[in-house]
Amino acid sequence: MSQTGRYRLRITFAKEEALKYISHLDLARTWERALRRARVPLAYSGGFNPRPKMAFAAALPVGYTSVAEMLDVFLEDRLTPAEMTRRLADALPAGLRVMAVAEVEPRLPALQSQVRAAEYSVRVAWPGDGTELEARIAALLAETDLPCERMRKGRRYTYNLRPLIEGLRVEAREGADYRLWMKLRYGSEGTGRPEDVLGALGLADALVNIQRIALCV
Amino acid sequence: MQISERLLDKILPTVATPARYTGGEWNSVLKDWDSAQVKLVLAYPDVYQIGMSNLGLMILYDIVNRQPEFLAERVYAPWVDMEAAMRQAGIPLYSLESRHPLGEFDVLGFSLPYELNFSNVLNMLDLAGLPVLAEEREEPWPLVIGGGVGAANAEPMADFFDAFAIGDGEEVILEILNTCAQAKRSGAGKEELLRALARIPGVYVPRFYRVEYNADGTVAAVTPTVSEAEPQVLRRIVSPLPPPPVDLIVPYVKLVHDRGVVEIARGCTAGCRFCQAGMVYRPLRERSLSEVLAAVEDIVQKTGYEEVALVSLNSASHPQIEQMVRELTSRYQHPPLAISLPSLRIDTFSVRLAELFQGRRKTGLTFAPEAGSQRLRDVINKRVTADDLLTTAETAYAADWQRIKLYFMIGLPTETLDDVAAIIELVREVRAVGRRYHGRRTQVNVSVATFVPKAHTPFQWASLVGEDDLRARLDLLRRGIRKGGLRLSWHEPQASVLEAALARGDRRLGRVVYRAWRLGARFDAWPEHFDWAIWQRAFEAEGLDADWYARRERTFAEVLPWEHIENGVSKAFLWDEYQRALRGDTTPDCREMCLACGVAETLGCEGAG
Ligand code: SF4
Predict the structure, then answer these.
(1) By CA distance, what is B30's nearest residue in A?
(2) Closest CA to B24 of B261, B256, B247, B252
(3) Which of A104, B54, B172, B560 has a CA that sits 20 to 30 A from residue B354's CA?
(4) B254, A25: Cβ pair inside 8 Å?
(5) For residues B57 and B147, is the Cβ–Cβ distance under 8 A?
């Protein structure tokens, strides 16, 4: 029996409203159990406490929805992407939806190290018209330095938000709300957070919801 | 009106572990609201992570949702941050499945696992916008019923409940719901509904009983006030056990016991005198090997759980346990399935069994000698010797376990400081055995609980040891069990005084529970929330004395407040066991020989005769 998992499938999935409050660890357990229900021949790590070999691209913060999450699973036996999709159909809880499955070369580097940026669709409650919003965005993008505060391990530190913003615009008007599009850097050189961008726009209290719409690998 | 997502979105991001308030778990059942004749919400008065591990609730959920005409949903106690957020936003307590406020259900069925959850019941009713006092709920719906071990003496909660189901819930729940369906159809009022319920065997409607007291405060008599109420409410049991539930709800949030469960037996024949479960679940009913194997297979397929526990009060004593474990471990290697047993006996057989199911994992073994000295183990009828323990420990250490956990109690009847010192000695002897195999890596973890006398047990007449004495005994243990691979965990004794008062309390304590809740008591089982000062004020204000309930030794002649709840084990048997305990005489396991405990006559018992 192989311990490495000879086959690797990449699942792109949506985490919808019904599941937006579950944490990343909860999501990992949920996937493991769903894959077991689906009788997917998961590869397990050796050792006294065998763990399934699977890896997520990027943890999604609690409260966000997404249509672009990615998960690599390593298998003992080959399963076509179509067969994987079929088996998962009856095994996933409401709120998890498979968008795509693709076969991936097992020796490629870990998914997590490949994510460079993420795109978000952010809904904000904005009573006025869009011009003021546009103006704020333009002003923000014109800056080169946007000092921002964050907490890490109970300590406050300052960082520059501006280089983490790769794109930002008003996407659409939806009822009384506006939908913003953001592309933020992701990875070891810093990860941009939609909430921080809203904060810099003076829109922290206007947040309605955040959806991740793409992971750029 | 269902609670809207948009409303919840305002508060859920601000609370800890929000996914415990959103439901939608795999295998949870959402039925059509309008077509259900009776809507039941099963409520557990502690947090989700604890309540979801409660098998009794899962059994009822399964049974009721299989009936086309009924529906069952769930609710757990919101943690204090969520409670505050809900109260501020004006959101009533709602069910996880359909998010209906509890007040829109027909029946609220509370599980009563334990006395220190009582204040949470009141809080949940209040959070649902319902009057907590049964007599203030004039409409028949929602009907508030209780069940579980806590119902064995429900008197302190009699003011808040409309009815209690005594014994195995699966036996009586559908009779209760059918009666409710009929009452709804006929438009019956509350009195009429309660009378109909009182006619169901095993259903106790407290308002139909009058309690009279003697001048010294003890109960003089408990008498039914309507013809439907029996003088003695006999516990219901299901026999043989029906197939276990397999469509277990798979949570998103990590639970205290996050695994599939098969109940391999109910009841226990060991006869430990301190153990309430051992008395209130008699007689022993076992599931067969094939039934357990089939259930595990179904659970594996339907839940995807990576671990299944074979539970009962005494799993290692199931006659087919070895085959069970062998078969399961060989059957489920890929993907791996962990098998666990909640408790082991103190013998080498159990260690061999653990080798089978823990494999190379060897996380640790747990044994419960309960008392340190042979004298005291005889008193409580825990028929194991120090030699048994040391041999068992030796087998375990030799088989490469490095960590052993031991459970003890302090405050057992007749206990002295010598018995407590004997705990230290025994623990050190176990460590000495371990050191021969593992040297300084040997670890012995010791967990000490305070013994609390419970209703329907041989020690129901005994006194709770006073707080100062308990503290002195704990201090002795803390000095003796530390360093060198020894670790001690314990609980503060104050909560035990409350637990003991409520466990053997009478109806008057309802006023204390009510007042304590009004003063802010909740989550009393959680040390960070338990506030003894609140309870002291409540007792004082009601002119009642916690010590009188907790510490007074009762006589045989005294009418115990729960005597009209007929558990099936005779009072004479319990008293005889108590006297034997005081003399230090042990009693055998009734698997070997029927001891005529009374259950054969009242409920029937296969082991008898
Ligand atoms: S009737 Fe006999 S065999 Fe049955 S539980 Fe009682 S003592 Fe044990």
Answers:
(1) A94
(2) B252
(3) B54
(4) yes
(5) no
Question: Residue A3's pLDDT band (boundaries 50, 70, 90)?
Answer: very low
Q: What is the mean pLDDT of residues A170-196?
A: 93
Q: Between the CA atoms of B540, B545, B549 and B551, what dihedral angle is there, to the nearest 10 degrees?
A: 130
- Write down the domain spans for chain A: 7-113, 117-216
What number is the ipTM of this complex? 0.92
What average pLDDT does this structure show over A12-26?
96
B18/A91 CB distance under 8 A: no
> A111-160 pLDDT, tens per residue?
999 999 999 999 999 988 889 999 999 999 999 999 988 888 888 889 99
Cross-chain CB nearest to B301 (options A29, A37, A48): A37
Note whether A26 contacts B306, CB cutoff 8 Å: no
CATH number of A117-216: 3.30.70
Q: If DSSP states are collapsed to H, E and C, what string results for B416-484?
A: CHHHHHHHHHHHHHHHHHHHHHHHHHCEEEEEEEECCCCCCCHHHHCCCCCHHHHHHHHHHHHHHCCEC
Quick check: do A7-113 and A117-216 share a fold? yes
Rounded to whole angstroms, how far apart are CA atoms B589 and B540?
44
C-beta of B607 in contact with ligand 1 (< 6 A): yes
Main-chain dihedrals φ then ψ at residue A127, nearest 5 degrees: -70, -30
Distance (Å) of CA A99 to CA A68, A116, B241: 8, 21, 44
Q: Which of B590, B592, B603, B606 to mutate to test the pocket of ligand 1 (most atoms within 8 A of CB)?
A: B590
Range A7-24 average pLDDT: 96
Asked if B542 contacts B515 with a C-beta cutoff of 8 angstroms, the reply is yes
Contact at CB, A76 and B334, closer than 8 angstroms: yes
- Report the amino acid identity of residue B294: A
With b for 16 or more beta-carbon neighbours within 10 A and e for fewer, the B311-322 pattern comes to bbbbbbbbebbe
Which residue has its alpha carbon closest to ligand 1 atom 6? B597
Give the pLDDT of residue B609.
67
Query: What stretch of H or E contains B279?
Result: helix B276-280
Q: What is the mean pLDDT of chain B?
A: 96
H-helix or E-strand spanning residue A165: strand A165-174
B302: distance to nearest CA of chain A, Å? 6
pTM recorded for the entire structure: 0.95
Predicted local distance difference test score (pLDDT) of residue B582:
97
Residue B294 CB less than 6 A away from ligand 1: no
Cβ separation A30–B302 shorter than 8 A: no
Token look-up 């007749």 returns B414
CA B496 from centroid of its chain's CA atoms:
15
CATH superfamily membership of B5-234: Cobalamin-binding domain (3.40.50.280)
Cα–Cα distance between A122 and A137 in angstroms, integer?
A: 14
CA dist., res. B312 & res. B292, Å (int): 12
CA of B193 to nearest chain A CA: how many angstroms apart?
39
Q: Note whether B253 contacts A: Cβ–Cβ < 8 A.
A: yes
What is the CATH T-level fold of the domain A7-113, as seen in this structure? Alpha-Beta Plaits (3.30.70)
Give B514-538 pLDDT, tens digit per residue.
999 999 999 999 999 999 999 999 9
